[in-house]
Amino acid sequence: MLSTRIKGAYWLKGVVFSIGAWLLMMVAPMPMAGAGLFGLNLGMGIDLLSFCAACMVNAVQRKFDRADGDRLSHASSLAKAVNLDMAAWYTPTAESYFGRIGKQRILDELAEARKSENAPAWAKLKKAELAKLAEREVNGTGWLPEILRS
């Protein structure tokens, strides 16, 4: 169901926790039978509806997707409407991001994240070393890859 290959994705832990919490709540005996959806009060019902809706949003852009397609456009509008801040949920790491892109792109992303030019010696590093350096340099800056910005 959820990929275990997504390291450093703190949001994934939140999703897994929420699924478990809702499952436990749904199987627990409800003292107020007939009091709304599964006996939930209004606030909990809204929380459940919000969680279910959020699980149905697919904002992953694949190679064959058009950026102006309905699905991605709607996901972007939703992210803006709820003030989604992915920086609070995801930090790019060597394993989760920098090690998966090309060396020149790492250098470009580093310059963007740091808002300054890279040290000339960085271009001579091997890709794995550069990815680890990029992880250290962007840690704590709140920088996100363009695809995760809303």
Describe the structure.
- By secondary structure, this protein is an all-alpha fold.
- It has 2 domains: 10-85, no CATH class; 98-148, no CATH class.
- Helices cover 46% and strands 0% of the residues.
- The protein has 5 helices and no strands.
- Helix 4 runs parallel beside helix 5.
- The longest helix has 18 residues, at 10-27.
- It is elongated, with a radius of gyration of 20 Å.
- The mean pLDDT is 82.
Q: What are the salient characteristics of this protein?
A:
2 domains; single chain; 150 residues; mainly alpha
Radius of gyration: 20 Å
* Residue windows where pLDDT falls under 50 for at least 5 positions: none
Count of beta strands: 0
Distance between the termini: 25 Å
Helix share bin: 40-55%
Most strands sheet: none
The run of helices and strands is: HHHHH
What's the shape? elongated
Average pLDDT, rounded to a whole number, is: 82
Content-based structural category? mainly alpha
The number of helical runs is 5
How many structural domains?
A: 2
In short:
By secondary structure, the chain is mainly alpha-helical. Helices cover 46% and strands 0% of the residues. The protein is elongated, with a radius of gyration of 20 Å.
